[in-house]
Amino acid sequence: KAGVTQTPRYLIKTRGQQVTLSCSPISGHRSVSWYQQTPGQGLQFLFEYFSETQRNKGNFPGRFSGRQFSNSRSEMNVSTLELGDSALYLCASSPPYNTEAFFGQGTRLTVV
Amino acid sequence: EDQVTQSPEALRLQEGESSSLNCSYTVSGLRGLFWYRQDPGKGPEFLFTLYSAGEEKEKERLKATLTKKESFLHITAPKPEDSATYLCAVQAAPLDSNYQLIWGAGTKLIIKP
Question: What's chain A's average pLDDT?
Fold first, then answer.
């Protein structure tokens, strides 16, 4: 069974640009969550989608947005990139009626 | 406020030297406690879920236990390949259908040969 797939694995962007990250969950999983991980802040919750609806949202500015498609694949977008947005962005999917989250390998975003 | 605290921040052990990592939590009602292992530059890898006080789970050299206020991850006779950051997360009983996980900062474990 394929795991959670995130693309791309690495990205370098310039301040002010925007970026879109993609996440394909494990087959059958309808919940997808996004996290930002930095050395100083640890894992910070961005948002969670379930059946194409945003179910939860963390404390991040509106520059961070996401969406989920009917096949449960999800994208997150960051507009007007800042240097502080440099981080490992992780996507996790969860099976129905279960609470375990299974993570992808992450996308390493570097803003220069 | 719901909170998860892990200790120590870092732990250095000799190969074969057993020890324990701690995860203490304060939540209004526990739905589940999760342990993950994370290697540098990779996503966290799921290890265990514990649901109620007294529950224990084992996997190879790892054993997770749960009380009403904390969880321990016991590592028996560790090997260098057990070196990683171990993360603990808690899911509180849902309020307004909020199933968000609350994460600890992690314990960085280094096993020296």
Answer: 93
